[in-house]
């Protein structure tokens, strides 16, 4: 049996303020290859050159990665604000339609950070542009120095920062074999209202939604608010998630054989 092919969504970037490119963080690619056992294949977060039907004909699973850009507020009936830029409206269009299509076609889907947010919006949910502005919430953004610059040490940036309580007997608790985990935190936007088929399976100590699954999905359709791709080679929680994603793809391959 061949290696599962995993579609990993790209993000729009401008290099040297001149060249428009699509980029994927290497940690996402390595997590897919080294832990899920798949062959990562980046596809563009651009609807004019990405045919979702054709894409799903050739991949065995989809990863919606984290990204700097926020989901555009008009996707959940809120006016946009310059404070919450940048946006990536083309990725929005691809990712939201793709989330629904994956579930409908039984293609394993793993949403990470922005990917979780996209899955929620795709199924009718809403987001808050700055979770830390809600009374009682912590600052979920990445650590910065006193001068405002991002901390230069990635082990500090991606360090575990808060606990997540998992739903007893839920998909995450069953998969991970526990009801409390500790995760990193690198996001500003977060789930406000869950979508119609979005089941909340993990909540941070301040009430922020951190883990979801899509109800009645025929296969793996999970989203996490933390960056599970950072170190799944050594982190047991993230390793189990990527392994389960890989197993779901192999199961789908066998069923189609």
Topology:
Elements: E1 5-9, E2 11-15, E3 19-23, H1 26-36, E4 39-43, H2 52-58, E5 61-64, H3 89-105, E6 109-112, H4 114-122, E7 126-128, H5 154-157, E8 162-166, H6 171-176, E9 180-183, E10 190-193, E11 198-204, E12 209-214, E13 221-224, H7 236-256
Parallel strand pairs: 1-4, 1-5, 5-6, 6-13
Antiparallel strand pairs: 2-3, 7-10, 8-9, 8-11, 11-12, 12-13
**Approximately how much helix is present in the residues?**
25-40%
CATH class: Alpha Beta
Q: Give the CA-based shape.
A: globular
Low-confidence runs: none
- C-alpha-based Rg, rounded: 17 Å
Name the CATH superfamily assignment: Class I glutamine amidotransferase (GATase) domain
Give the tags.
29% helix, two-stranded antiparallel ribbon, 13 strands, Class_I_gatase-like, 24% strand, transferase activity, Rossmann fold, alpha/beta, 257 residues
Describe this structure in words.
The protein is an alpha/beta fold and 257 residues long. The protein has a single domain, classed as Rossmann fold, CATH 3.40.50. The chain has seven helices and 13 strands. The chain has helices at 26-36, 52-58, 89-105, 114-122, 154-157, 171-176, 236-256; strands at residues 5-9, 11-15, 19-23, 39-43, 61-64, 109-112, 126-128, 162-166, 180-183, 190-193, 198-204, 209-214, 221-224. The strands form three sheets. The chain has a nine-stranded mixed sheet with strand order 4-1-5-6-13-12-11-8-9, with helices on both faces. Strands 2-3 form a two-stranded antiparallel sheet. A two-stranded antiparallel sheet has the order 7-10. α1 (26-36) packs across α7 and α3 (89-105) packs across α4 (114-122). The mean pLDDT is 94. Pathway: Amine and polyamine degradation; putrescine degradation; 4-aminobutanoate from putrescine: step 4/4. Involved in the breakdown of putrescine via hydrolysis of the gamma-glutamyl linkage of gamma-glutamyl-gamma-aminobutyrate. Its EC number is 3.5.1.94.
């Amino acid at each position: 049996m061949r290696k599962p092919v995993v579609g990993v969504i790209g993000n729009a970037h401008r290099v040297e303020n001149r060249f428009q490119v699509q980029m994927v963080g290497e940690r996402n690619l390595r997590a897919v290859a080294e832990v899920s056992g798949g062959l990562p294949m980046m596809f563009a977060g651009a609807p004019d050159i990405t045919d979702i039907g054709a894409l799903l004909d050739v991949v065995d699973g989809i990863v919606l990665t984290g990204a700097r850009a926020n989901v555009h507020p008009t996707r959940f009936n809120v006016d946009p604000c310059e404070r919450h830029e940048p946006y990536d409206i083309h990725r929005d269009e691809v990712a939201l339609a793709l989330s629904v299509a994956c579930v409908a076609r039984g293609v394993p889907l793993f949403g990470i950070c922005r990917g979780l947010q996209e899955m929620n919006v795709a199924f009718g949910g809403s987001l808050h542009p700055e979770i830390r502005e809600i009374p009682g919430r912590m600052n979920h953004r990445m650590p910065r120095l006193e001068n405002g610059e991002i901390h230069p040490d990635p082990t500090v940036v991606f360090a575990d920062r808060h606990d997540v309580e998992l739903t007893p007997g839920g998909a995450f608790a069953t998969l991970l074999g526990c009801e409390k985990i500790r995760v990193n935190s690198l996001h500003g936007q977060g789930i406000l209202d869950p979508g119609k088929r979005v089941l909340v399976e993990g909540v941070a100590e301040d009430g922020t939604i951190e883990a979801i699954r899509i109800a009645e999905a025929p296969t793996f359709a999970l989203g996490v608010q933390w960056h599970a791709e950072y170190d799944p080679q050594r982190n047991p929680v993230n390793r189990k998630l990527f392994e389960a994603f890989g197993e779901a793809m192999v199961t789908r391959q066998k069923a189609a054989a």
